[in-house]
Structure formats: C-alpha cells, structure tokens
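We include this case.
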Amino acid sequence: MMNRIYRLILAVAGLWLLAVAPAQAETWRRADTDNFILLSTGGEENLREWALKFERFDALMRLRYRIPPTPSPNRLTIYILGDSRDVMEAMAGRKYGGVAGYYSNQLDGSYAVTQRTVARRGELSGQEVMFHEYGHHFMYRYFPYAYPGWYREGFAEYYATTEFDEDGNWTYGKPPLYRGSTLTGIQRQISVEKMLTRPQSELSDFESYQVYTRGWLLVHMLHSDRERGRQLNDFLLRLGRGEDRASAAVAAFGDLDELERDLKKYMGKSPTYIRGREPIAYDGRLDIVELDDVDSEFESLRLANRRATGREKTSERLQDLAEKAPDRVHIWNEIAHAQKLLARRDAWRLAYEEARENGLDRDDAEPGSIEMGYALATIEKALALDPDNGRANALKAEFLMDVARYNDEDGFWPVAREHAVVANRVNPDNPFPLSLYWKSYAQAGEDIPDTARAALARAFELAPESTILRVDYALDLAMQGEFDRAKGIVEFLVASPHSERRGKLALQQIEAIAAGSSYLEASEMKLDEDEEDEDDDD
C-alpha cells in the first residue's frame, strides 16, 4: 500500500496545472521586531514608523497590566497594505467593501491586515483598527478569564485611539469618533442592564453594534473613577469564578438603574483621556529588509492563500513562481499548503453530495480517504531541498495524519510523529508542531504520553488565541479529569460572538468525556449546524 501511494505521488508530481502569468508584483519590505513581523508594500521609513508604533503600543499595554516586557517567542504577523480596497481584496478577493482591517487567530501563525492610508476625521484609520485588534490579541494572550463581549469590545475601543508622537509620548482613552451617531446618540441605546447581563447572541444586530460604543463609554467611565474601577474588577473576578452575569453585576455594581443614570450623565461630559508622564522608548530589535521580486510576489500570494476564495488560481500562480525560483523551500511549502486545503475542501464537498444522494443530513457526511497526492509530492520537493526545514516537516506530519485518519494500513501515525519532532527541534517555540505531536496520539486513539501532554500545554501557552488549540487543550484536560479547568478555558470562546458556537460545542464535548466518551467520540460531535469561526474585522 505504501509503495502504491508513493507511486501515485510520483505520478501526480509532474501534472502541474498551467498557470496564468501574474502581473508585476509590488515591492514588499519586512520588519522584524521583538514582538512582531511586519510586511508592507510601502516605503522603508513608513514601515519603521509602524514598527515603532506597534512596539510602543505593546509596551504600553504591558506597563498598564503589569506584563513582563520580554520578547514574544511567537510573534504576531501584520500586513500593512495600501488602502481599504487592498484590505478587502486580501480578505475576500474583491476591491469593494467597508473593511479597514482584520485579525485572524491561527494555530500555524496568527496574523492581522491593515491599511496605511491616513483616514479623514471621523473615519476609521489603519492604526485604530490594529490597536483595536491587538487589544483582542493581547487579551487572549495574557488575560485569565472569559470576559463578556461588551468588556472585550469596550476594552479594545478604549485603547484603539492610543496615539504616540515621534518621541514616544502617548495618550489613550480618546473617544472613537469613527463610531459616529452610535457614540453620541441618545435614542434607542442598549440599556446597561441588558449589556451587562445578556450574552451577545441574544442581542439584535443594532444592539450588537452598540456594544462597541456603549462598551467603550462604560469602560471609560469605570476606568476614570477609582471606586467604579474597583467595582469593575470585582465584577470581572466574579465572572472568572463562575458566577452568572446578572448576579455578578448586581453584587459588584449595586443598583444597575443607578449605573445607567451615571452613564448617561457621563456621556454628557467633555471626554477625558490619559496622557503619559514619560515617553515610551523602544531599543529592541528592528531589522528591515527589502524583498526581491520573487519574494515580493510570494508575500502577495501567501496572503491571498489565507482566504478561502480563489485558492485554485493562487495555487497555480505559486507553481508558476516556483518555476522561477525552484530552490526556495518556502514557495514549495506554500504550494503544498494550498493543495492540502483544496484537497480537504473537495473531499468534504464529495462527502456532502454523497450524503444528500443517500437521503442523509449534511452533518452525517463523512469524507473518504483524502487524496493528498499533490500536496505530498510538493512537500517532498521542499524536503529534498532542505530535509530539516521546520515548516516542511510540520506540513508533512499534518498531511500524513490526514491520510491516516481514514486509512492507516501502512502505519502513517508514527511517521507523522517523527516529522513533528523534527519540526519542533528546528523551532521549539512554534506551537504548530507541538500541537501536531499531541494530535498524533489523540487522533490515532492511542494512550497519550506525558511528553505529548506537555507539548500541548506549551503550545497553548504560546498561542492561547488559537481556537483550535484552546479546544484541544481543554479536551485533553477533560481526559485527565480536570473538568472545571477545561470548561474555564473554553468559556473564553463562549463569551465571544466570533467563537460562541465552537465554545458551546466544546462544552458539550467536555460533558461527553465526563460521561465516559473517548476523545475520538467527543471530537466527532457536532452542533445543529456547521459554522466556522469568523475573523474579527472592522
């Protein structure tokens, strides 16, 4: 069987699709700092300014919440594009729409996209988008509890309007004027009681949008008064201990009608903000390089490959680029990644069609053995160039595990495990191979050794923002009998409108494990409808 599969791999390796010649790529520049990887189509000086802004913002947040100023071993990647049309094309493959930036948490590398165009007064700027999104990223990375949606969004808005001058002097807490009438309007405001006590899934679309501005106003007021600030801390701690929202709100704030009246009065006051007493300096790593034509085109295609639309064309263009530079391993890795995603999509599409033809529900569909011939052949090209390449080894581990889940006659699990170990050896602080090592036992239905559990715990420590990783870690804790801790970890997902459904499913899976189900049985559970988590965008 193994020989037949590899003969198939060799056979399909030469059947590349004809690619359309791409247009001339923009020149990209890359900046590496202590906590970020920034990729920009703008000039070097502009990129340097962005790098300093992000590092200063990170330093301000760490100072504010007493987080040690140590460089991150798992840095966030940020793409800085020309304008909102470029952002929309990166997100959805089209040039029209109203998104100024977005953030996506990913196990193999979280990233954000913004624009460098200077916004007009009252419009959302690229900097405000990124500071808002980094507020979410920061909360996922460093905050222990599942905070409600109004506080998450109010927190992110509170810091989104942070400003720095060229010397590092700073302010934060200015009003988000880009929110327009929902910030200053008096009519049809969502009540404080409803905002504090109801999950966002129970709010109307209009009320959900108001959570940004009313959340900002409430956070601003609570942060501006020492006694109210203590009440806020009490409320958040009560939620962290598992109290329901309504009782926690009353216990912490007292009369919610009085809190409503105070908020209305506060809205009528002139807005205040915090001005720093000392400038924030950054003297860490800041390396900027200009990418050549091949790697500039590669960055454009890698960003395009992150979206679900147009992946076939992107794969073709990557193959065309590989012909220009056949010795660049990262291009072959990206081609293989695209082919894997296409293979998974096509396998599920066929499974859905088969289920429908047999009168079954969509949730009863089961994919057959996923054809990974193209992706495996491509990754072999990368490994031939560099056998110790970390990403190539991690991708091969993942591909072999995809095959093994449906057909393991040839013992793919231990081979996949070996490649995950090599990938981890190359980069011990990459959460992706650490997670793969754990999965190679859990998804194989084998006993999970302590080394694999330690690898998963370390992966979660490195990337707690990853939804997939958070769920896996919670289920592993449940398998060890730590049910309360497992539920606390996925409550973080339930509290967010972008991952609420996945969090609720994880709670059901934890209950199933507590009732005696295996990991494999629990992992096959589904909610009433399939729904992927959404990116957070503005």
